[in-house]
C-alpha cells in the first residue's frame, strides 16, 4: 500500500492530505469494481436473441407506404398520386417565393437567438394565426375568449386538443366522418378518446350523404365531440354547401355537440382564405365554443417545418385563460415547447401587408393549378368515352379527389401503369401535370373497362 504523506507544517495541510489519500483509495476501489462489472456484464459478449425478438414488423402507413412503393419502382413513367403535397407542373416540390424571402429576412436579423420558446410558442404567431382563421375583427378575439397555442402542424394540434378533452371534458367520445383522414382515429384513440363515425360520403353519387350525416349527428348523445373538416375534406374532396353548414351548425348547437375543426387547407381549397374559413366562423359567430386545429403545411408549403396551432374558443375570457393553463400541462411533457423556425416564417409573412398579399397570390396560383388539373382530367376521361359519370372530379374541391375506383382497379393501375395511390381510390390532384393527365386517363379508362 502506498504510504500516506504527512507534513508537520500545519494541521490544515494534514487534513487536506488525508482527504486526498481517501479520494485515491476510493478511486482505486471504484476502478476494481468497474472492471469486475464490465467483465461479468449480462450483455457483454451476449449472442442470444434480442429482448425485442418478439416485436412484430408493423405494416407500412397506408398513405406514406405508397411513396415507399413508388420509390422502389424503376419505371420511367411511374406516377405518385398518394402523397398529400403540392407539386409544380414539372412535378417538383415548391418552396414559395414569399417563404424564401421571409427566411432571408430572418437570416439577416442578427438579433435572433435560438433560445427555448415558451410552452405555448411564439405569441405573435398565435395571435396572427387566430386572426387568420377567425377573422381580424372576430368578436371572440376582441373579447379574449380565444386561446391559441403553437403546436406541431395539424397532427400535433389535434393531439394536444384531444388529450385536453380526454382530461377535462365530460364526454369521452368523438364522432368522425366516414371516411376521414387515416390518422384521425389513431390520434384520438391514443389520446384517450373513444372514436365513432357518422355518415359523410355517398359512394353512389360520389358526393355528400347529407341526410345520413344529419341523422347520425341527430342520434349522438348530447355533448359529444364532433370532428369537422373546415374545407377540402380529406380524402373525398366533398364539402357541404354554406346552407348545409348552417343546418349542421343548428343541429349541433341544439344538442350541445362540441365542434372540433381540422383546418388543413385554408386558402388551398378555393384560393380564398376567408371563403375557406367560413364554416368555422359560422360556429364562432353564434357565441358557442369550439376547437380548431390549424396547419400551415399545405397553404405555405411548410410541410417539413411542422407549423400549426390549436385554438379553443370559449364563452368567457377567464375560461379561456384557465384552458390555456391546462393546455400547457398537456404540451410540457409531450414536446416541452415548439420549434422556432417555421412559426417565425409564418409570423413574418402574416404581419407584413406586402408579404401577406404576395402569399395570397402564390396561394391562389396553387389552388388554381389544382382546379385546372381537375378540369383536364375530366375532359380527358370524357374524350376517351370512359364509362360512368366523372363530373364528381370537377365538383369536388381541394387537393384530393375520391375517384370511386375500387381496390382491384387501383391494384391494376399500379401493376400495369405504375400509378400509385391509396387503395381507396383517393388521388392527389396536386401530383398531376398537363403531361401526366393523359397517362392517368388511359389508366383509369383501362381499369374501368377491364376490371369492372
TrEMBL record:
**EC number in record:** 2.6.1.1
Required cofactor(s): pyridoxal 5'-phosphate
The top EC class, named as a word, is transferase
Q: Which GO terms describe its cellular component?
A: mitochondrion
Listed A to Z, the keywords are:
Aminotransferase, Pyridoxal phosphate, Transferase
Q: Which reaction does it catalyse?
A: L-aspartate + 2-oxoglutarate = oxaloacetate + L-glutamate
- Specify one Pfam family: Aminotran_1_2
Question: Could you tell me which PROSITE patterns the record lists for this protein?
Answer: AA_TRANSFER_CLASS_1
One example of the protein's molecular function in GO is: pyridoxal phosphate binding
* GO BP annotations, alphabetical order: amino acid metabolic process
**Alphabetized SUPFAM superfamilies for the sequence:** PLP-dependent transferases (SSF53383)
Q: Which family does it belong to?
A: Belongs to the class-I pyridoxal-phosphate-dependent aminotransferase family.
Extra remark beyond the main annotation: In eukaryotes there are cytoplasmic, mitochondrial and chloroplastic isozymes.
Cite the record's note on assembly: Homodimer.
- What protein is this chain from? Aspartate aminotransferase
Q: Which organism is this protein's natural source? A: Gossypium arboreum (Tree cotton)
Query: What phylogenetic lineage does the species belong to?
Result: Eukaryota, Viridiplantae, Streptophyta, Embryophyta, Tracheophyta
Amino acid at each position: 500500500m502506498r504510504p500516506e504523506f504527512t507534513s508537520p507544517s500545519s494541521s490544515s495541510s494534514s487534513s487536506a492530505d488525508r482527504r486526498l489519500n481517501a479520494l485515491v483509495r476510493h478511486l482505486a476501489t471504484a476502478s476494481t469494481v468497474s472492471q469486475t462489472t464490465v467483465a461479468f456484464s449480462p450483455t457483454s459478449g451476449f449472442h442470444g436473441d434480442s429482448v425485442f425478438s418478439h416485436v412484430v414488423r408493423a405494416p407500412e402507413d397506408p398513405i406514406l407506404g405508397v411513396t415507399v412503393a413508388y420509390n422502389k419502382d424503376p419505371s420511367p413513367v411511374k406516377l405518385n398520386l398518394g402523397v398529400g403535397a403540392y407539386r409544380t407542373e414539372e412535378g417538383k416540390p415548391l418552396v414559395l417565393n414569399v417563404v424564401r424571402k421571409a427566411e432571408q429576412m430572418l437570416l439577416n436579423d442578427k438579433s435572433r437567438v435560438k433560445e427555448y420558446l415558451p410552452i405555448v410558442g411564439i405569441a405573435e404567431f398565435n395571435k396572427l394565426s387566430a386572426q387568420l382563421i377567425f377573422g381580424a375583427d372576430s368578436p371572440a378575439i376582441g373579447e379574449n375568449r380565444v386561446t391559441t397555442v403553437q403546436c406541431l402542424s395539424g397532427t400535433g394540434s389535434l393531439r394536444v386538443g384531444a388529450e385536453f378533452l380526454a382530461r377535462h371534458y365530460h364526454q369521452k367520445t368523438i364522432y368522425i366522418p366516414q371516411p376521414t383522414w387515416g390518422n384521425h382515429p389513431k390520434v384520438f384513440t391514443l389520446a384517450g378518446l373513444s372514436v365513432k363515425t357518422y355518415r359523410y360520403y355517398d359512394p353512389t353519387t360520389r358526393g355528400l350523404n347529407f341526410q345520413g350525416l344529419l341523422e347520425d349527428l341527430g342520434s349522438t348523445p348530447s355533448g359529444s365531440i364532433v370532428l369537422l373538416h373546415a374545407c377540402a375534406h380529406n380524402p373525398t374532396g366533398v364539402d357541404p354547401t354554406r346552407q348545409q353548414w348552417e343546418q349542421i351548425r343548428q343541429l349541433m348547437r341544439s344538442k350541445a355537440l362540441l365542434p372540433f375543426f381540422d383546418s388543413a387547407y385554408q386558402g388551398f381549397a378555393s384560393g380564398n382564405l376567408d371563403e375557406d374559413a367560413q364554416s368555422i366562423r359560422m360556429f364562432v359567430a353564434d357565441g358557442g365554443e369550439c376547437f380548431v386545429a390549424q396547419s400551415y403545411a399545405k397553404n405555405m408549403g411548410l410541410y417539413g417545418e411542422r407549423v400549426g396551432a390549436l385554438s379553443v374558443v370559449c364563452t368567457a375570457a377567464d375560461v379561456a385563460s384557465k384552458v390555456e393553463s391546462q393546455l400547457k400541462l398537456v404540451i410540457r411533457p409531450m414536446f416541452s415547447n415548439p420549434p422556432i423556425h417555421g412559426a417565425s416564417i409564418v409570423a413574418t409573412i402574416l404581419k407584413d401587408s406586402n408579404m401577406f398579399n404576395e402569399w395570397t397570390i402564390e396561394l391562389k396560383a396553387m389552388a388554381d393549378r389544382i382546379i385546372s388539373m381537375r378540369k383536364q382530367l375530366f375532359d380527358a376521361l370524357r374524350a376517351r368515352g370512359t364509362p360512368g359519370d366523372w363530373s364528381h372530379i370537377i365538383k369536388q374541391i381541394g387537393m384530393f379527389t375520391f375517384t370511386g375506383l375500387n381496390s382491384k382497379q387501383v391494384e391494376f393501375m399500379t401493376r400495369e401503369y405504375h400509378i400509385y395511390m391509396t387503395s381507396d381510390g383517393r388521388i392527389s390532384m396536386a401530383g398531376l401535370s398537363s403531361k401526366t393527365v393523359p397517362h392517368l386517363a388511359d389508366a383509369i379508362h383501362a381499369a374501368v373497362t377491364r376490371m369492372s
